[in-house]
Amino acid sequence: MVGLFLMLGSALTTFLLFSIFCRASKHWMPQPHEIVLRVPVQLSLGPIKRHEARNGLRVKPIFHSSLHSLPDRQRDRIMNVLLPDAVALVARALRVRKSVAKLRLARQCATRKVFFRPGDTRHYCQSTCANVTYCGPVPVPEEHLQRCQRCSELGQNCGPVSLPDGPGEAHVDFLLYVSAKNTVRCQGGSTVAYAAHCQQGQDDRPIAGYANVCPEALAVKHGKLTVTALLHEILHALGFSASLFAFYRDNNGQPLTPRRSNGLPAFNASLGLYQWSEKVVRHVERLWLQRDGHTTHEVSLLVTPNVMAEGRKHFGCPSLEGVELENQGGVGTELNHWEMRLLGNEVMTGAHTTSGPLSRLTLALMEDTGWYWADYSMAQKLSWGFQLGCLFAQGSCLEWVKDRHHRGLDTWPFCISPRVSSRQLTCGAHHASVTRCNLRRHRAPLPHQYQYFEVMPWLSAESAARVGGGVELADFCPFGQEIHQDTENQHGIDCTNVENQPDSSQNEAHKEFGNGYFCLRQEAPPGRCWTNSEQALWGAGCYQVSCSPEGLAIWVGGHSYPCHYDGQRVAVKLGAGAASRNGSLVCPLCCAICSQCPSEPNVNNWNGTSLALHPWDSEPCSGSPAMQESIHSSTAKALQRIFLFVLLLWAGG
What we know:
17% of the residues lie in helices and 23% in strands. By secondary structure, the chain is α+β, with helices and mostly antiparallel strands. The radius of gyration is 28 Å and the shape is globular.
């Protein structure tokens, strides 16, 4: 394993050259006293079968006056662009199984004592209802409320009091109260937005919730609110929440978790939520490889039927027992998101990114609540983990990387590979962006099971224990992470954004941006006779990719290069003589980009030689015969540079 970790010293020096940003997502689960259960809902129809579902989930935003405290442009963007787009995505992807005719919410109680009567779905407050009913930080308008239902202190003489029911909202499935308040849950600006449900109907489906955006966070540099972030929060309120797992139902409408005599699941006081059964979430122990050998690793798996089926298909692992939930990040992150090590930037992993696909896995979870039908045609492609097999889905990233190196295959999405330059980049999820490996030296030793790096003559056991990926939620596995470019000379990373196109004088690798362009790894630093390789960002770049029945092709400088298998190296030379530019690109997995791909040959049985290139002048650069060296020779040079740096690192203590 020595060769696998030679990059360590060089990688650590590059950590501070870029601003790598990851904001953990906290789902602030509602406290039991904040939720009103078993609210009677007037339905327009009985249970709707999948083929009968015509209308999308009808979410109605209700904007609170606190939004007017935001700058006009920011407020208008939230109210007129971001939130409508997020709600429209939900409406296209989900349909309720029971359609609502009229939606009214129940009043909260003045005390936390509630009575439930046999055969009655309503709750009754002890003595009296609260003067104001809240949904999160937002007071619910009187017109949305039912009349107060109360009992005496001993639970007798139960019935309605006060004014009649409010008019409610017709043909609405979910009321979303939207506010902009700096609350305790904003954590002093570290949280951009948060959301949760506040009331559940008689079939346990959330019927109302809130989304609060945090003005403090919006005011800082990285506090950007996106459609993806709002979609993430809305999905928490609709069902992706540990506070709702115990209420999930099967396809026949029967609870997956046993109910007590009051019709509710058992309450787990230590967790502060209702306890789910093993038909929803199961805890298992797996073998986990770290630097000292195998240990045990406990994971929480979501095991509902559609999630399990989609997980097996996504990872290409027929024996998968369920899909892992996040086990890091503390209360509000763990159990409330997908495991980031396995699903990267999927919309419901626990770290906010500028974009994140709504995958079939999240749609499967929403369908497995028993409250919705999912339209899987609305799912977006998720490349992270796709068809990477059982070892990826069930093992540690170290075991995955060792196996891939042994077989001579790419280790993507992890980036444990030689860092031969402080300017080296890599590709992000879906090959949609250029990223940088987040390998770093931590201030304190990592938990033992996440110590992946071996002790070397130049690296003490104490130092090796502090080295790992920069994101706890990914189990400290190094991966390519988004870069926030801070200087005018560093360009953006989104391959589809034409505004990121660099000036030709700074584009020796012929990178291009726009629709149909994807991130590809560069085998060696491009440049004019290698002389400018230290001045250019290298290791990955954006290039045009085309798909056809014959497979995937890469386009550089107007010329196409066919890809026959994942990891194939394509040698590229542009120009001639002193103006020549040389390098090689690494072919991606065809199905990670194209919808239809031919069967790929086994790389070990591939009989082809280097691909036929266009007849450029093969004259080497003036005074630089090294331009004709093979990739193997280039790799040897890289290793020499690594070794030189390691000696310097060792000598420096």
